[in-house]
Amino acid sequence: MFTMLTISILTLIIAYVVMLIATILSKKTIMDREKNSPYECGFDPKGSARLPFSLRFFLIAVIFLIFDVEITLLLPIASTLNLTNIFSWFFTSITFLLILLIGLYYEWFQGALNWS
Question: Which whole number is the average pLDDT over 13-21?
Fold first, then answer.
């Protein structure tokens, strides 16, 4: 029990010393107003929080996320091509792509209706 307590205290002391050294070494002498202010996607963080949000920006972000997830799900399908039956691989891939395309068209039509 004493050994574990000693190791824990020693670990905390080492972590504190490393953080203290990093804090001392990372101090910058030039203070810039723009670098010290938080970046909030082009919004002024000190202004009103009730400004209207751009729907076009939101839809582009959603489409990016959809295609980002699509790539992560399609790459393993391509790597298992020679391990599985070609018919089941083809059916699974086509079904997945159709679901993504239907979602993309739905988002696109909803965005087109809201922009006009």
Answer: 93
